[in-house]
Write a structure and sequence with these properties.
282 residues, alpha+beta, Multidrug-efflux Transporter Regulator, Chain: A, Domain 2, Endonuclease, Chain A, 2 domains, two-stranded antiparallel ribbon, 10 helices
C-alpha cells in the first residue's frame, strides 16, 4: 500500500518509495557521510523534504556515471546550497499545501498545450518558461514556442542543450545540469499581470521504461498568482546561472511581478484551460 505523506514531512519509507534507495542504504549514507539530513520529530523519527527527494535522486544519477559515493554527495550538496535546481521542489517548498496529482504523459501534454494556447491568446508581455528535459522534446514544440516568444517579455526554455543559445527570434535555449533534477522535470510557466498559470511535473522513476505516452509524472498546476510567482522565481534563478548574458538584458524590476489574491479572471482561466484539455483528450 502506498504511504501517505505526513503533514510534517516525508517518512523514511516514503523517501525509499520515491527514490528507489533502500532504507538501510539511506541510514548508512547518513551515518558515514552526513547525507541526507533529516529533521527529527520529538519521537526521534526522521522526516524528509521534497528537496531531499531530489538530492537523493541526484546522487543516484551521479553514481550511475561511475562517480564515487563521496564525490557524488559532495557535488550534489554543493550545487544545492546555491541556486534552487528544481522547479518542482521549489514550488512545493514555497506552497506545501499545493498537492501533486499523478498523470500520464499524454494528459500532461494536453494540459501543457492548453496552457500554452490560452496564454498565447490572453497574456500580455508574459514571462514564459518551459522545461523540456531533452532537446528532442523541445524540437517537437519549437515552432509553437517561437510564436509564443514574439509577444513575451521574456521566453526561456531549459533542456540538455550543449550550450546557451540566444536567438534573435524565438526563446532563449539554456542548458540544464545533466545530473540535476531538471532532467526529470516538465514545466510550463506563464507569468503576466492578470494572467498567471504554471504546470510543473516530476517524472516518476520506474524499473522498466514504459512507452512514451504512458510515462508518469507527479504534477503541480495552479492559477494561484503566489504559486506562479514562486515557479517563475525559480526559473529566473536558473536563467541567471545558465546565462548571465541574458540576465543582464533585463532589470530586476522588469522581471518582478507582485502576487495578488486569486481573482475571478484567474478562475475563468482555470476553466478555459480545463475545457481546452478535455477537448484535446476527446
Amino acid at each position: 500500500m502506498k504511504q501517505q505523506p505526513a503533514d510534517d514531512g516525508l517518512a523514511i519509507g516514503e523517501l525509499v518509495e520515491r527514490t528507489g534507495v533502500s532504507e538501510g542504504t539511506l541510514r548508512v549514507w547518513e551515518r558515514r557521510h552526513g547525507f541526507p539530513v533529516p529533521e527529527r520529530l520529538a519521537s526521534g523519527h526522521r522526516r524528509y523534504s521534497e528537496s531531499d527527494v531530489e538530492l537523493v535522486a541526484s546522487v543516484v544519477r551521479e553514481r550511475a556515471t561511475g562517480m564515487s559515493l563521496a564525490a557524488a554527495i559532495a557535488r550534489v550538496t554543493e550545487s544545492a546550497t546555491s541556486v534552487e535546481g528544481s522547479i518542482f521542489a521549489g514550488l512545493r517548498r514555497s506552497l506545501p499545501d499545493l498537492q501533486p496529482i499523478s498523470l500520464r504523459k499524454d494528459v500532461v501534454l494536453a494540459l501543457s498545450r492548453a496552457i500554452e494556447d490560452e496564454s498565447c491568446a490572453q497574456a500580455e508581455r508574459p514571462l514564459l518558461f518551459g522545461s523540456f528535459q531533452r532537446v528532442r522534446y523541445f524540437r517537437q514544440s519549437q515552432r509553437r514556442w517561437q510564436d509564443f516568444a514574439r509577444t513575451a517579455e521574456l521566453a526561456v526554455v531549459f533542456a540538455d542543450f550543449d550550450r546557451p543559445h540566444l536567438p534573435e527570434v524565438g526563446p532563449a535555449e539554456l542548458p540544464i545540469d545533466r545530473a540535476g533534477p531538471l532532467t526529470r522535470e516538465w514545466a510550463v510557466v506563464c507569468d503576466a499581470p492578470g494572467h498567471a498559470v504554471c504546470l510543473v511535473g516530476l517524472e516518476l522513476p520506474v524499473l522498466t521504461p514504459p512507452r512514451d505516452a504512458a510515462r508518469e509524472f507527479e504534477v503541480l498546476w495552479s492559477v494561484e498568482p503566489a504559486a506562479v510567482r514562486a515557479a517563475s522565481q525559480v526559473c529566473l534563478g536558473l536563467m541567471r546561472r545558465a546565462s548571465p548574458e541574458l540576465a543582464e538584458r533585463f532589470s530586476d524590476d522588469a522581471l518582478k511581478l507582485s502576487a495578488g489574491p486569486i481573482s475571478d479572471q484567474q478562475l475563468r482561466l482555470a476553466s478555459a484551460i480545463t475545457t481546452r484539455t478535455l477537448r484535446a483528450m476527446g
